[in-house]
Structure formats: structure tokens, C-alpha cells
Design a protein that fits this description.
Shape: globular
Radius of gyration: 17 Å
Strand content: 5-15%
Helix content: 25-40%
Strand order of the largest sheet: 3-4-5-6
Distance between the termini: 24 Å
Order of helices and strands: HEEHHHEEHHEEHH
């Protein structure tokens, strides 16, 4: 990928040992398909991609929010925080890659979520509900507004746990299974 395509990335910030996107993300590209929540067949045992130089454009063009949000320190790298931050036209999505009831209620996560809610940035979470099924997405701004306004960490944590429990109880559709290429 040309440097021009990576100009929005934080300088000197690299994925390092993190391979969360190689496991968590669904890839449904014309040239490559990988189910969500399944290790990519090109991920090497010690990390890194077997086809890095020739990886699909979807893999070349996608970066988690940690790679381009300069305000996030090293501790926000997905494999360290347990949360993959994604962004889209609707704001920031918190996608836990470890137990959501643990990683999404840390003071670090609550500070970022609460700050976004307070600033009116759309915040949401995408919670894996059951192996082989799609995650359940929940908007966070409205449900957390009162707790954020009260600036109460315990209130926000309690509300987050309630939202996580609600998400975990939802029925979602099965993740498509792709034949290996």
C-alpha cells in the first residue's frame, strides 16, 4: 500500500503482535472470504500474514481505530485492551475480543465511551452473543446519557453491564460459512 493511503495513520504506530482483525472480522471480498470470529487461514502461528505482500485489498485498506486515533495510547492496541475499536460513518464501535463484562467496564473503556457520549459522538458496542452467530450491536449514547451527565463511574459501569447482559440475550443470525479457497 502506498504511503499516501496510510497518511491518516499515527506515525510509527504498528500492529505489532496484534492479530485481532485477522480473527474477529468477517471478510467477504471477491478474492478472499473469511468468517467472523475465525482465525484467518493465512495467519501464521507466531503472528503475521503468510500472504502479507499479496493480501486482499480489504486487508490492506482496513485499520482499527487505534491505528489512526492519536489520542489512544499503546494500551488501546486491541490485543492489550481486549477491545477492537472500529469507526464508521455512525461513530465509534467498541468490539470486545475478550469477555465484554470485563473489558467494557474498565475505567479506561468508560472514560473513552463517556467522553464520546458527552461530546455527542455516536458510540456503540458490538457484542458476540454465541459462537457462529453475528454480534449484537447496541447504541450507547441514549442509554448512557444520564449516567455520563452525572459523571458517575459506578452508574456508567452498571448501565454498561445491563446493556451487555441485554445484548448477550439477543438472538442473531448465523455467520455465513465460506468454503475454503
Amino acid at each position: 500500500m502506498s504511503e499516501n493511503n496510510e497518511s491518516h495513520l499515527v506515525p510509527s504506530r504498528e500492529c505489532g503482535e496484534c492479530t485481532a482483525c485477522c480473527v474477529v472480522l468477517l471478510i467477504d471480498d471477491d478474492n478472499f472470504k473469511k468468517p467472523a470470529e475465525q482465525v484467518c487461514s493465512n495467519l501464521m502461528a507466531k503472528g503475521g500474514c503468510k500472504i502479507y505482500a499479496k493480501r486482499p485489498s480489504v486487508c490492506q485498506d482496513w485499520h482499527c481505530a487505534w491505528r489512526f486515533m492519536a489520542q489512544l495510547d499503546e494500551s488501546w492496541r486491541p490485543d492489550l485492551s481486549g477491545i477492537m475499536l472500529r469507526s464508521d460513518e455512525n461513530g465509534i464501535i467498541f468490539q470486545p475480543i475478550r469477555d465484554p463484562k470485563t473489558v467494557l467496564i474498565t475505567a479506561q473503556a468508560i472514560e473513552l465511551i463517556g467522553g464520546g457520549v458527552a461530546q455527542g459522538i455516536p458510540m456503540s458496542m458490538s457484542i458476540p452473543v454465541k459462537q457462529g452467530y453475528r454480534s449484537y450491536s447496541t447504541a450507547l449514547n441514549e442509554p448512557l446519557a444520564a449516567a455520563v451527565e452525572a459523571r458517575s463511574l459506578p452508574m456508567i459501569q452498571d448501565k454498561m453491564l445491563e446493556l451487555i447482559e441485554f445484548s448477550l440475550a439477543q438472538q442473531t443470525t448465523q455467520i455465513p460459512i465460506f468454503a475454503s479457497k
